UniProtKB/TrEMBL annotation:
This is Copper transport protein 86. Signal peptide: none annotated. Belongs to the ataxin-10 family. Residues 460-499, 511-532 have a biased composition (Basic and acidic residues). It comes from Malassezia japonica. Residues 500-510 have a biased composition (Low complexity). Residues 439-572, 640-671 are annotated as: Disordered. One of its GO terms (cellular component) is cytosol.
Length: 671
């Protein structure tokens, strides 16, 4: 077994004969000794760190004299020296994981700071020769915070928060490295700092050191902590889109980095500090909406955590009784969960109200031209809706097991009329449908011939008994379209999947997807509906009598392709707000029982097969224990194709007692 004396002898031989052979022998001896230290074998820590400090100072003095225009031989010698430095830092890295070495490491930490200050210079971090050395330095720091609380505190103060001049932003620099392994090590360093001990389910003991809770607070409420978390989120984004062509090892590092960052967010959730982080990441300048891209990405990470939690919930069984002591710990855990999740409600409401107001101003003709804020709000809404939906699903699973958890408490908060989450969702659904209504790709063959002969467009009077209903935007469930359906906007046909380009190849156009089949033209006469001017593209006279090409998709019986379908590029500048209606419906179906929403849901889902499953799930909840909704459904009758008269021979819909309530698992199956 190698010992420190053998390593020192090999390095002395390298000093005497600086050639490649002696250099490789010295490096090999250091690597073997590093494995010995990692195994926990007895070692003289003081002698080891004294010798390491001398070698580090010697290497730093040599490398600082290197010139970019050095000869090839000098560059080779420098590469050998850097490899030796990497091996020495590997010995220190393995020593840092040993609790018995912690006191010695604290006494010699100034030597580590000297090496760190040199290696974290920008020109050294991007130097290919020194990148492996920087990587092992990051691993040394990650191990140093695991063995001793005092050592952990000094690393946190000096190199994470930067309370002193020595490497004030060491962690941020390491996480900004171009080397995937260095970034992973820096992420592990942060995870080790904020990691909290798990609560024992059976005895209810809580072993979280108060110091680690303090670390988590520093991370979510200090300026340097927010800067670090924003860097972490940028690393998360970069890891998700890592280049597959760089090889499997890089992909593996990227996935491990994603997993570590997700674990960091889970720890913040467990401490009850996620909500503080979400609110403190709001932009301090700029216009509305007050939401940043970092917040959106953070919500995506939260959604990943909740999805993992939901999978665990489905596999758990409630098989033991909870003692009073354990119940107290469960309630503390629930309180921390609520502290993490409740701020999400305010973020959702603020962004939703901005979105509603912006779309309303545009539809009412008050001139909204710049939609960049609306697009950013749309991204935030999708992420927030997904988080709220997954949290609600977790709550339903816990309710099914008759458990009181943070999930069940938050689900009750979502359903509370005080927060107006459901009302906000219904209003948002209404305004999105007015802003970019769904378009049918079909019209009935009988109406087509009549309108082609007259060349006119007829609008039926809006039924004022149904609140906020815009007539002419959707067909009835039996496939009969209203008179406005002939006024098809120039655009794309139905049938494109999310993100799939349009068939006519217009890359810059807003393709049709979940929320809109077709788009409004940029110019054309206004059609007044309920006093609201909506831009519509009128058919040309030449196109009225011309034959149209059949659609690639099979047509329903009694329907023909709409004239001029896909014959012109889309010039509408409005964002289509992809999948927003679907996400809103999904959340409503998860949380509502009694609040109103039947008219809007019936209108929006008339022609959208891809969200019909969510609509059915939502409608069943709206009908349950809601006599007003049941009466409304009982009064609905499809219009007869011949005379337009309503049928009266159908019995009313069954009551809530005849409608089986779906479980959370059944809801997930609809996805």
């Amino acid at each position: 077994m190698a010992d420190l004396g053998a390593v020192q002898t090999a390095w002395a031989a390298w000093d005497d004969a600086p050639v490649a052979a002696t250099a490789r022998a010295a490096v090999d001896a250091a690597q073997v000794y590093a494995r010995v230290v990692a195994s926990g074998a007895q070692a003289d820590a003081e002698a080891l760190w004294t010798w390491l400090g001398q070698r580090w100072a010697q290497w730093q003095a040599y490398d600082a004299q290197h010139r970019a225009d050095a000869s090839y031989a000098d560059k080779e010698i420098r590469e050998l020296a850097a490899d030796g430095m990497r091996a020495l830092l590997g010995v220190a890295r393995n020593s840092a994981s040993q609790a018995s070495h912690a006191a010695t490491i604290l006494r010699h930490w100034s030597e580590v700071c000297g090496v760190m200050s040199y290696l974290l210079l920008f020109e050294n971090m991007v130097d290919p020769t020194l990148i492996p050395v920087v990587r092992v330095l990051a691993q040394l720091l990650a191990n140093a915070v695991t063995s001793d609380l005092a050592l952990q505190q000094i690393v946190w103060d000096l190199h994470v928060l930067g309370k002193q001049a020595q490497s004030p932003d060491a962690l941020v620099r390491l996480m900004s490295s171009s080397d995937a392994r260095t970034v992973l090590a820096a992420s592990v360093l942060l995870l080790n700092c904020v990691d909290t001990a798990l609560e024992e389910e059976l005895n209810g003991s809580m072993t979280t050191p108060p110091q680690k809770v303090s670390f988590a607070l520093d991370l979510v409420q200090t300026p340097q902590g927010i800067k670090i978390m924003e860097t972490v989120i940028m690393v998360y984004d970069a890891a998700l889109i890592s280049d597959p062509s760089k090889g499997g090892s890089v992909q593996t590092m990227a996935q491990e980095t994603v997993d570590v960052i997700t674990s960091i967010v889970q720890r913040l959730m467990r401490c009850g500090h996620f909500g503080k982080l979400l609110l403190n990441m709001r932009p301090t300048s700029g216009g509305e909406p007050h939401v940043s891209t970092s917040q959106v990405t953070l919500l995506h990470i939260l959604a990943a955590c909740l999805e993992s939690r939901l999978e665990r919930c489905k596999g758990e069984q409630h098989t033991h009784r909870i003692s009073s002591r354990m119940l107290s710990k469960v309630m503390q855990k629930s309180e921390r969960y609520m502290n993490s999740m409740v701020p999400l409600l305010s973020v959702f409401r603020d962004v939703a109200h901005y979105t509603i107001q912006t779309m309303k101003e545009h539809v009412d003709g008050r001139g909204v031209v710049d939609f960049r804020g609306l697009i950013r709000a749309h991204m935030a809404l999708l992420a927030a809706l997904q988080c709220l939906h997954l949290s609600g699903m977790c709550g339903q699973e816990d309710v099914a097991r008759r458990e009181t958890t943070g999930n069940t408490q938050f689900l009750a908060r979502l359903r509370s009329p005080d927060d107006k989450i459901v009302e906000t969702c219904v209003t948002l659904l209404h305004e999105v449908n007015r802003f970019f209504p769904a378009q049918s790709p079909f019209q009935t063959s009988g109406k087509r011939s009549q309108e082609e002969e007259t060349g006119s467009v007829k609008a039926k009077k809006t039924d004022k008994t149904v609140p906020d209903m815009v007539d002419g935007e959707h067909g009835m469930p039996d496939g009969k379209m209203d008179d406005m359906r002939d006024d098809t906007r120039d655009g794309h046909a139905d049938g494109h999947a999310d993100g799939e380009p349009a068939a006519d190849g217009h890359a810059g156009a807003h393709a049709v997807d979940d929320d809109a089949h077709g788009a409004h033209a940029a110019d054309g006469p206004s059609d007044m509906r309920d006093g609201t001017p909506n831009k519509v593209a009128m058919r040309s006279d030449a196109g009225a009598g011309a034959s149209t090409q059949p659609s690639a998709a099979p047509l329903p019986d009694g329907h023909v392709p709409t004239p001029n379908l896909m014959s012109h590029p889309v010039t509408d500048s409005r964002p289509a707000l992809h999948r927003l209606k679907c996400s809103v419906l999904q959340l409503i179906g998860t949380i509502v029982y009694e609040p109103p929403g039947m008219p809007r849901l019936a209108e929006v889902t008339a022609l959208q097969d891809h969200i019909r499953e969510y609509a059915i799930f939502t409608l069943r909840y709206l009908l349950a224990q809601n006599p007003a909704s049941q009466r409304l459904v009982a009064e609905l009758r499809p219009i007869q194709p011949n005379d337009g008269a309503a049928r009266t021979d159908r019995p009313p819909l069954a009551g809530a007692e005849d409608v089986p309530m779906p479980t959370a698992s059944g809801a997930a199956a609809l996805q």
